[in-house]
């Protein structure tokens, strides 16, 4: 990757190009603005600076969708209302993503894809006598 005759090592009058930058063929096509820096490094070795170019444009993601036609609306509403959950338990459930998992189980996925988690929605007692939906 080194280009030019700029020394990478300087000690008094002695200079040398002993610090090298290596990259694979694939990565080397993305290296930009390679240079030996003039910034002080507290060393006899000068810093080698460069940038790695990245793909331009926003990244897009294919998001999974739910099949709203198969949604059990009553079960979904009960789950989202948090019936039987005290405030602390509801926050813990929401933070752990169990409500989202339950919504996914109730909705199913479109097409012929089988959902990864089709376990039935269940309620179990938790600390304080409240119900945990998951």
From TrEMBL:
Q: Where is the Endonuclease/exonuclease/phosphatase domain?
A: 3-48
State the Gene3D superfamilies in the record: Endonuclease/exonuclease/phosphatase (3.60.10.10)
- List each coiled-coil range: none
Q: Name one GO molecular function term.
A: catalytic activity
The protein's name is Endonuclease/exonuclease/phosphatase domain-containing protein
Organism (species): Trichomalopsis sarcophagae
